[in-house]
Amino acid sequence: MDRMFQALADPSRRGMVDRLCRGPASVSELARPLAMSLAAVVQHLQVLEASGLISTRKVGRVRTCSIEPAALGAAEGWITQRRAMWERRLDRLGDFLATNPDEPDQQPQGQTEE
Amino acid sequence: MDRMFQALADPSRRGMVDRLCRGPASVSELARPLAMSLAAVVQHLQVLEASGLISTRKVGRVRTCSIEPAALGAAEGWITQRRAMWERRLDRLGDFLATNPDEPDQQPQGQTEE
DNA sequence: TATATACTCAAGCTTATGCTTAACCAAGGT
DNA sequence: ACCTTGGTTAAGCATAAGCTTGAGTATATA
User: Fold this and answer.
1) Per-position b or e across B28-50, b if 16+ CB within 10 A of its CB
2) Do B25 and A112 touch (CB under 8 A)?
3) pTM higher than 0.70
């Protein structure tokens, strides 16, 4: 998961993911819009591949890259879960405030213990 | 967006977000499960706050941290959009293969030009 | 066969990250 | 008043990230 978010934390890499969502591409095709050396692009691709976000296959002298949608799903899943947690909490808080009007609001769950 | 994903790329920071989804907490409360100095925790919190993922407010001598759900939504949104793109592409590819059976499969869109 | 293309690999450099310690300050409790 | 708790600040350090250049290796193409 570390590697996943780390990989997405760079704009060039997000650009590559973006492009690859529209279909597979070669290394130099991915490099074209970027203002950096080919070698740098390859290093970014290694990060993406290590994170599981993309996979690559070399045929002849050209390496073709494609996204690995499952990985993207994993990152999304992590976030979605926390959001769900948060929303459940908001609901409970809403219930609490609805049934105990006018009280100075405190944590309804025992989570601020100390 | 860089800062967002960067912030989520560290396990300690994800742990803090996790905890904060269950409700607000003080700095030392967030520090307790972590094997590092308070100062280090504060630095992580600065990263999280700079990314927009959390907000903090100091009352008396204790700083209370809470998640900023909108930010989490933004990260989720980025991923969801790319997934949608990817799925639309898969659909088009499916249509293509369904109507042109047996052909050695190529990109139906003009995206592998070179 | 010669040349260009599409990478690949290894060094090296600069800046950013993640952490530590130590000194410090302000609020609360006794 | 004194000590403790909760946090802040600054300095320093080791490792990792992002990039470059330069040289090398296959694979196509003319």
Assistant:
1) ebbbeeeeeeeeebeebbebbee
2) yes
3) yes
